[in-house]
Amino acid sequence: MRLLTHNFLASNVRGVSTGYPLALEVAKSSIKEVELNADFLRGILPKLDWRALVAAASAAGFPDLLAAEQPQEAELFADGAADAEGSAIRRLHHALLEIHVDEGALVCPDSGRSFPILKGVPNMLLHEDEVRH
Amino acid sequence: MKLKQLEGLLGGLTQFADPKVELEQYATGPHIASRMLYTAENSFDDISGKVVADFGCGCGTLAIASALLDAEHVTGIDIDLQSLELAQENATDLELDIDLIQCDIKNLNLAGLLVDTVVMNPPFGTKRKGADMDFLSMGLKVASQAVYSLHKTSTREYIKKAAIRNCNAISAEVLCELRYALPQTYKFHNKKEVDVAVDLWRFVPRARDERAS
Fold first, then answer.
1. For tag attachment on chain B, is the N or C end more exposed, with fewer CB atoms within 10 Å?
2. Which CATH superfamily is domain B3-210 in?
3. Model pLDDT for residues B116-154, shown as the tens digit of each residue
């Protein structure tokens, strides 16, 4: 599971209000490099929950990867930023699409219910008595 | 990528060895899957550079087709762990990165507007009534751009009405009618091959801030 998926995944245990954002616990993670697509990042920037992403990156072992507040577009998409080592856009790309959580858990902020992540796959299945009717 | 090339790559995927009747695990054949995704990409620009979710991904055919057509991020969701493991293997074989989530589609909860396009070959609802509509209404809740789905042609009028009236679709369009050749997957199929007419649909969800709920 990459952190982009974490950014839209919520818990649906009966009785929770939003079930979002899920607290991330990471026992094992890995990095797989992929090509940076600036147009894609520009498009999703307004739709991201920045705080949830910062918390997830921190949980995955990268507490200093992202700024606490979302950077301005002008900074992120400045000429040459995509090719500049350590630029804000490269760090955003890394956080969203290159960090994989292989083992760990997702914890519902409302109910405390923990959903295990095994072999990269979060198990969001609910027990019978947790399902909304 | 050309249609034939896409179909060829999908034809090489490993299918269910032991499909589960209760989940209506019919694999989406390479012919249908390639046409579905090729149309989504080339006629509507709904795949390349997008965030795509595959509902009930099974062995991952539609998710993998999306990744092959340069979706930026693909998430396959299925209730069945064995299917997800197979999807992972299939993606790895083609050196594609897809994310996978184990979840019952009717209990899915996705926040925000990050998912652009949902693709699915839902259970037809013959084993568990309403399963197809659970998938469709969740797809229209989650997608911000479009939902592609397959439904039996015999249910066309019903699907159209239900999608618009109950599921937040502002448009529901049949793109083409396909023949779904169900191989003799299960023992209760007594004819050698059952040919079912299915519609390839494209649904457009109502913008989030215009929804009644």
1. C
2. Vaccinia Virus protein VP39 (3.40.50.150)
3. 999 999 987 766 778 899 999 999 999 999 999 999 999
Which residues 155-194 of chain B have a CB within 8 Å of chain A?
none
Across B197-205, average pLDDT: 96
Contact between B175 and B132 under an 8 Å Cβ cutoff? The reply is: no
Q: How far is B41 from chain A (nearest CA, A)?
A: 16
pLDDT reported for residue B19: 72
**What is the distance in angstroms between the Cα of B104 and the nearest Cα belonging to chain A?**
6
Q: Is the pLDDT of residue B213 over 70?
A: no
Mark A31-55 as b/e (b = at least 16 C-beta within 10 Å): eeeeebbeebbeebbeebbbebbbb
- Percent of chain B with pLDDT strictly greater than 90: 74
Q: How many domains does chain A have?
A: 1
Residue at A130 is within a domain: no
Domain boundaries, chain B: 3-210
**Nearest-10 Cα torsion for A51, A57, A60, A65:** -140
Q: What residues of B are in contact with residue A129 (Cβ under 8 Å)?
A: none
ipTM attached to this prediction? 0.95
Contact yes or no for B84/A22 (Cβ under 8 A): no
Q: What is the pLDDT of residue B212?
A: 59
Q: Is residue A128 part of a domain?
A: no
B112 contacts A120? CB cut-off 8 A: no
